[in-house]
Automatic annotation (TrEMBL):
Keyword vocabulary terms for this entry: Lectin, Signal
Gene3D superfamilies reported for this sequence: 2.60.120.200
InterPro entries noted in UniProt: ConA-like_dom_sf, L-lectin, Lectin_LegA_CS, Lectin_legB_Mn/Ca_BS, Legume_lectin_dom, Leguminous_Lectin
PANTHER family to which the protein is assigned, alphabetical: CONCANAVALIN A-LIKE LECTIN FAMILY PROTEIN, OS10G0129200 PROTEIN
SUPFAM superfamilies: Concanavalin A-like lectins/glucanases (SSF49899)
Protein name per Swiss-Prot or TrEMBL: Legume lectin domain-containing protein
PROSITE patterns reported for this sequence: LECTIN_LEGUME_ALPHA (PS00308), LECTIN_LEGUME_BETA (PS00307)
Domain (Legume lectin) ranges: 37-289
Transmembrane segments: none
Family as reported in the entry's similarity comment: Belongs to the leguminous lectin family.
Coiled coil: none
Amino acid sequence: MKKAENMYLKSLKPEFLFIVLLLYTLPMAASIDNGNIHFTLTNFTSDTPSIEFENDATASGGAIELTTNQNGKALIYRVGRATYYQPMHLWDNSSGNLRLADFTTQFSFAINSLNKSFGDRAEDDSRADGFAFFLAPYGSKIPPNSGGACLGLQTCDSDANSKFVAVEFDTFRNLWDPPTMSDHVAIDLNSVKASFHPVEWLWNDIENGGKVDAFITYNSSTKNLSVLLRDAGDLTRQNSSSLSAILDLSLYLPEWVTFGFSGSTGRLSELHTIYSWDFSSSLQVSMNPTSNPPNVAPGPP
């Protein structure tokens, strides 16, 4: 089952919208309990112990820069990841009754093309490529030759060995994308070339690096993965983008997963910045779980 739509916030009752957004923005103490994870991060430095930076991803000005920000200039042929240092326990089958985790995440981000207004042609005044929030097998690293359109998620030459689930925020229309769409949001399953129906991202302010709030939830009972975007701090915006899909994540991912952000540029460039990140997961497991957590380096107390 697939579902993709543009959702108009004007059609929602104001009190309902307020409650939904309030639930997402309540502060959470950073903690890990029986494989469940809860944290709120609003300031990032190179010494932030809970974030692992890979390749070109760095911390700068209290934010995460996925593809290098060189004094306000975007660089070409960059790829970077920023992931949480602990794995998430995504599912458990020790009782013979498969249990999936519920999780919610909210992050504030900006894609800044530095006044480049096109994302559908390989010219100097165009922009590319985007970034994704992703889940992959624990220990996953950036594959070789995965820059540009592949967003650091898979080798561009082949997706035969790819294993990930991602929500992509794509700013360039590639050959496999819908012909009428440049900037778009989509759910990727093991390949950036095979997305659930993408949603056109019409109202963005990528030219000026406008901030956006993203809300992603997974309901284990309904197996619904849903995505909502809105302007950061703006509850009156009439047009917001939403996307959802019914997915059994245990069919695509192992029991323990790495999660975080991955972004890239190719011959064209832009900045990919994460300003804050909230995350919460919950999985009820039996007394004898299917497997123990992988060994990880010590992180924050």
